[in-house]
Design brief:
The structure holds two protein chains of two kinds.
Chain A: H1 2-30, H2 37-55, H3 59-63, H4 65-92, H5 101-121, E1 127-128, E2 137-139, E3 144-146, H6 147-169, H7 171-181, H8 183-188, H9 193-219, E4 221-222, H10 228-241, H11 246-266, H12 270-288
Antiparallel strand pairs in A: 1-4, 2-3
Helix pairs in contact in A: 1-6, 1-9, 1-10, 1-11, 2-4, 2-5, 2-9, 2-10, 4-9, 6-7, 6-9, 7-9, 10-11, 10-12, 11-12
Chain B: H1 2-26, H2 31-55, H3 64-79, H4 84-106, H5 111-131, H6 133-136, E1 153-154, E2 157-158, H7 162-184, H8 187-197, H9 199-204, H10 209-235, H11 245-258, H12 263-284, H13 286-290, H14 292-306, H15 315-321
Helix pairs in contact in B: 1-2, 1-7, 2-7, 2-10, 2-11, 2-12, 3-4, 3-5, 3-10, 4-10, 7-10, 8-10, 11-12
The chains are: A mainly alpha, B mainly alpha.
């Protein structure tokens, strides 16, 4: 039972960690909370659904399941990433010099718009998510694991490793780190700051989109308002790990996922109260240790 | 000149709110009364939020939690047979205490962090109302079968009919507007604006920033609690569904649309956002009204980018928002 809940927690945590990366990267560079990120996550799930409908009609993909999944994720993540850049260009870029509340309110506006757009023009009901590959169960003595859980954990960890490699070892990654450290000095060193900000939104939104598909596959249905709760929990994860800190977001995501699974599994009536628990963590961390578990001291909270 | 314009605006507003519902009723459009009462309740909420968001510049995304608190407390007390004269002050006091409890630790945070803490608190409030079956009857709402919320009674005055109750709401709205205006022009109102413009400078000028902020934070809860009490007694049924995060967002958006810190602005925005779509629903059908949130989101983004001072800008705020030489 313990290991079973741990596995549930890690699966959930992988999804939270992927979303949290988007929050934390944007915060690291722009010092703003990208409120529309939960809607990006939701649109990722819907893009995945559209591409599934499209690809399942192409005969080439019907035999080769690997390519099917690969292209499904690639295309959906790319579309979501483009949406992320679009939002940044339209709603945040004009407000870069405005007071700090302005982009937050603009983000809320974007969030309302996207949610209602999907409600009005796509579906106002829950949409059943397609089973992309056959579900196999593997039984060990202590826990039962299915192929979907393995897939979710494997894919999110590999995406995070790729991101880690990108940030740590490539030239663009170095530029990203430089911009988040000091935007003005970075621009003096010849870094195109605007392009780096767009890149951040591109990566963050792409990862959020992947999380959306994984979430849809895991729970089996998607809806226009599905983004809010995972979004706010992922934000909690980002805060927990120290906002602006990339490893912190991953770490926070897993901690939150595991805590949630244990609350739901071991405390009587915990399933109803697990969301309260997540929000309580959010408030307590912000009040007691706003720099997070892994974060360095923030200049100004 | 501006002063006269404001007077005309207020006069028109009061005239409109005073005579529209009876006029609508006599024409057979009974929903006018209901919509006007709803506008009145939202006006109270907006005026309260305007204190904290407009005057002091603190973003509160969980304001609806205190509205919910007011509504549920008053329902619980009213079901137990308390008189309205006691329900109202008791609810206000308890709600303000709760607000104080949140404000004491939370106001140390600034900007978006405060917004997130208040958001979290708002969600916790909704979830508690939803899950605490024994007290709140969970998602089924209050009152339970066999219980009832009584009509408000002041000693010898009973607000039995809907129209008389509407005038009671209107009385509180006008009181709220007057209090808001007096606060805006008072010493403490100027302190709030000083804090909004530059907290450090305000502190250097001898303003006790923490105290003044906490005062605004708690004072806004009085508005929320009153609105909650009136809502409960008007609808006579409440459930956690009415107090979601999106309601808080709607309130914040109305303050932004109207112009932060501008009392005529936020009043106008409330009437536009709450009232006009409901009247249009009667004329143009439900289909169009479903699109309002879409345009609303778009409007919010455009407003922040192109006209951050709002529809009717506050004079002081406008001066502040002029391009700085940064």
């Amino acid at each position: 039972m313990f290991f079973q809940q741990l596995l549930n927690g890690v699966t959930l945590g992988s999804i939270y960690a992927l979303i949290a990366l988007g929050y934390t990267m944007v915060y690291g560079i722009l010092l703003m909370i990208n409120f529309a990120h939960s809607e990006i996550f939701m649109s990722g799930a819907f893009f995945g659904y559209f591409f599934y409908q499209l690809f399942s009609r192409i005969s080439f993909f019907q035999e080769k399941i690997f390519f099917f999944i690969f292209f499904l994720f690639l295309c959906s993540m790319f579309s979501t990433a483009l949406l992320g850049i679009f939002i940044e260009q339209v709603a945040y870029k004009p407000l870069r010099r405005a007071p700090r509340l302005a982009p937050l309110i603009s983000a809320i506006g974007v969030s309302i718009f996207i949610q209602n757009f999907f409600m009005l023009f796509v579906s106002n009901q829950s949409v059943a998510y397609p089973q992309i590959f056959p579900l196999k169960k593997y039984n060990f003595s202590l826990l039962e694991i299915n192929s979907l859980q393995i897939f979710i954990i494997f894919l999110s960890i590999s995406l995070m490793l790729v991101l880690r490699f990108f940030i740590q070892y490539t030239k663009l990654g170095k530029a990203t780190r430089a911009v988040s450290q000091d935007r003005e000095t970075a621009s003096l060193m010849g870094i195109n700051v605007n392009r780096i900000i767009s890149l951040t939104f591109f990566i963050g939104a792409g990862l959020g989109g992947a999380a959306g598909i994984l979430n849809g596959m895991y729970y089996g249905s998607i809806k226009y308002n599905m983004g809010f709760l995972p979004g706010i929990k992922a934000f909690t994860a980002a805060v927990l790990g120290g906002i602006g800190n990339i490893s912190g977001a991953m770490f926070g995501g897993y901690i939150l996922g595991i805590c949630e699974a244990f609350t739901a599994g071991f405390i009587p009536g915990g399933a109803e109260w697990k969301d309260v628990f997540a929000f309580a963590i959010l408030i307590l961390v912000l009040l007691l240790k706003p720099s997070g578990l892994l974060g360095t001291q923030l200049k100004k909270v | 000149m501006i002063f006269i314009e404001k007077k005309i605006f207020l006069f028109l507003l009061i005239f409109f709110l005073l005579f529209l519902p009876p006029l609508g009723q006599s024409l057979g459009m009974y929903y006018t009364l209901h919509i006007s009462a709803l506008i009145g309740i939202y006006l109270l909420l907006i005026l309260g939020l305007n204190l904290i968001l407009g005057f002091v510049g603190l973003l509160d995304l969980g304001f609806i939690a205190f509205y919910a608190c007011g509504a549920y407390l008053s329902a619980l007390l009213s079901i137990r047979g308390w008189n309205f004269c006691l329900v109202l002050p008791a609810t206000i006091i308890l709600t303000v205490l709760l607000r104080l409890l949140l404000g004491l630790p939370a106001l140390r945070l600034r900007g978006d962090y405060l917004a997130i803490v208040t958001l979290g608190f708002g969600e916790i409030m909704r979830l508690v109302l939803n899950n605490w079956d024994g007290l709140t009857n969970g998602p089924k709402g209050l009152p339970r079968v066999g219980e009832a919320i009584s009509s408000p009674k002041f000693f010898f005055l009973t607000f039995q009919s809907d129209l008389s109750f509407y005038y009671l709401i209107l009385f509180f709205v006008i009181l709220g507007i007057i209090v808001s205006r007096r606060l805006d022009n008072s010493r403490i109102g100027r302190a709030w604006i000083a804090i909004r413009e530059d907290e450090l400078a305000a502190e250097t000028c001898g303003i006790n920033v923490d105290k003044v902020k906490l005062f605004a934070f708690c004072f806004s809860a009085i508005y929320a609690a009153t609105a909650g009490v009136l809502y409960t007694h008007w609808i006579k049924f409440i459930s956690p569904e009415s107090f979601t995060f999106w309601e808080s967002v709607l309130l914040v958006s109305m303050v932004v649309l109207g112009g932060m810190g501008s009392i005529p602005g936020v009043i106008l925005a409330t009437i536009l956002v709450i009232g006009v779509p409901e009247f249009l629903r009667g004329l143009l059908g439900t289909q169009l009204v479903n699109y309002r949130m879409l345009f609303f989101g778009l409007g919010l983004v455009l407003m922040v980018i192109f006209r951050p001072q709002g529809i009717v800008p506050s004079k002081r705020r406008e001066l502040e928002l002029h391009p700085s030489n940064e």
